[in-house]
Structure formats: C-alpha cells, structure tokens
Design goal:
single chain, Ribosomal Protein S5, domain 2, Alpha-Beta Plaits, 2 domains, 34% strand
Amino acid sequence: MTRSKPTLPSTIDGVHREELVIKKSRFIASAAHVTTVDEAQQFIAAVRSEFWDARHHCLALSVGKETPSQRSSDDGEPSGTAGIPMLEVLRARNLTDVVVVVSRYFGGTLLGAGGLVRAYSSATSGVLDGAPLVERRWLSAGRISTDHAHAGRVEYFLRDWLPQHGGHLDDVIYGSEVEFSFAVPESDLMDKALSQSFSGSISAEYLEEVIR
C-alpha cells in the first residue's frame, strides 16, 4: 500500500564553481554534492588547498535526507555575516547533501556587515543556480519471483512499464526461480497493472520504502 510521506529535500549533482566580484573583492563559490560530513570536510580541505592564499573560506553544509546535519562557518568574517547567510540559502531552497565554500580575496574596500551578508548569499545562490537539481522521492522497493518459463515475459513487462511510471528495475537474479528487484512510486498502480497483464498469476512483494 502506498503511504503518504513528507516532501524530501532535493540535492545537486556534481561539483560547480562561480565567481562574484564586489568592490574588487573576489568571492569564489564552490559547491558539491556529498553524502557524508566526512566527504564534505574533504571537499572543504581541497578548496582551502586550491585557494590557499584567500583570506577567508566561509562555508555551509547540509548532509542527511530526513533530518539533515547542518553546519556553517564565518572563518574570520564578522559573526553572522557569511556562514549563516550561506546556510539560509540552502534552507530556503530545501537542499541537502550539499556543501558550499566561498573563498574570498579581499579587494581593499570594507563592505560592512550588510554588504558581506549580501555578497556571501549572492555567491552561494549563484553557484547553486548553475548546478543541476536532483529531486528525491519515496519509492516502494519490491520484488517478484517467478519460474523460468514466465521470466522473459515478466522482465519485458518490468523494463517497459517501470520507466513509464517513475520506477526502475534494480536487479535480476537467476536461481531455482528468477527474482526481479525493483522500486516504484505507486505500488497500488503497479499491482493493478500486474493483475491486468498476468491475470493474477504474478504478484509483487513490497519490502520497504526507500529514498531515491
């Protein structure tokens, strides 16, 4: 049975970079998809090493799908003018499994607290604007077991029907029977399609709900 679940935060794909110049100060924003805090720390360290002569490396990260772990750092900028504004951009866009580092080269002109907030927010928004958005969904993970005589027809059905309805075939295991593992957004809809296609002789077992 398909159950209602809360909307999941989205993420981004890959690594991206954008540069913003304000009153000769350079704000180089680097963003990456990460799956753990350790991965985020490795990315932060790599950016720090690449731009070793930058005056500041301010950051914001959000990691975790349902209850994200969130951190930020002003890295020497006045308190509250960099890390938190960057993190607020991630929150406003409902993004997680993302880390953003903004490396600043000082241009000689003080921007003031308000100017810094706008600069770090804009740099973060700019790099995220250029990153492909990946939306997450709750899917029902399931399996179908059948004998070898019917396996070909079942596989054809799954490879044709699942992509059309937002699902996908994960694995096919051949043993004494053939087992198909899959994930699908609406298990009720799939049950109906199986019943219509196989006259009730083939049914699915649903194991758990997963996030993809």
